[in-house]
Design a protein that fits this description.
This protein starts with 6 loop residues before the first helix and ends in an 8-residue tail after the last helix. By secondary structure, the chain is of the alpha+beta class. α3 runs parallel beside α6. The chain has two domains: about 150 residues, no CATH class; about 35 residues, no CATH class. It has eight helices and five strands, in the order αββααααβααββα. The radius of gyration is 26 Å and the shape is elongated. It comes from Janibacter hoylei PVAS-1. It holds the Pfam family Trp_oprn_chp. InterPro entries: Trp_biosyn_TM_oprn/chp (IPR019051). This is Trp biosynthesis associated, transmembrane protein, Oprn/Chp.
Length: about 200
């Protein structure tokens, strides 16, 4: 198994990317001026305003990586797919802030003023959208590691299940605390509990 294909590496890369995204969400992504009533006003849009949903995306990335390393085969591939979608979403949000910085700043300023739509603005992106794209790159590396190593991963295994959990699922406590079949299971077995 390659180094990237190890469970711990995939989780650590995804958690690092998530932490970077959470930190980036608190920083200024776009700065500039907005035309106000009294003239141009200097303003900024933080990451969670400029890229709505960034914090949620970061948490989804971390959860998807952990779930991918602890799940069965089908759920693992679904979680890895989610990890890829998260990386694409981060790139899309970041590129929007870089390419359309004045529109993003105008929209955020309109929201701050209690309006809808967008205000006339000039602005540019800071380094933080680029940092978020680096975090998306980490997620993609984790995805590649998950794809390369995921075929050989196992789930958590039976050592994490309670002893007797399977038999307890179909039984209930009797009058003296003993385990007995539930009425539903008795009907399934052909016994009619209403005749007791």
């Amino acid at each position: 198994m390659t180094f990237l294909g190890r469970k711990l590496v995939v989780v650590l890369l995804s958690v690092a990317a998530g932490i970077v995204l959470l930190a980036a969400g608190r920083a200024d992504w776009v700065t500039g001026t907005v035309d106000g009533v009294a003239g141009p006003v200097r303003t900024a849009a933080v990451g969670t305003e400029a890229a709505p949903g960034l914090a949620g995306i970061a948490l989804v990335a971390m959860a998807a990586a952990i779930a991918a390393t602890t799940s069965g085969r089908v759920a693992r591939w679904i979680c890895l797919g989610v990890l890829g979608l998260v990386a694409a979403g981060v790139v899309a949000l970041s590129v929007r802030c870089v390419v359309a910085a004045p529109d993003v700043l105008g929209s955020v300023a309109a929201t701050h003023s209690g309006g809808t739509g967008t205000l006339e603005a000039t602005g540019s992106a800071t380094a933080w959208p680029w940092v978020a794209m680096v975090a998306a790159g980490l997620l993609l590396v984790a995805l590649v590691g998950g794809i390369s190593g995921g075929r050989r991963w196992g789930g958590l295994g039976s050592k994490y299940e309670r002893p007797g959990a399977e038999t307890e699922a179909h039984s209930v406590s009797g009058a003296r605390g003993e385990r007995v079949d539930s009425d539903w299971d008795r009907v399934t077995l052909g016994d009619d509990p209403s005749v007791d």
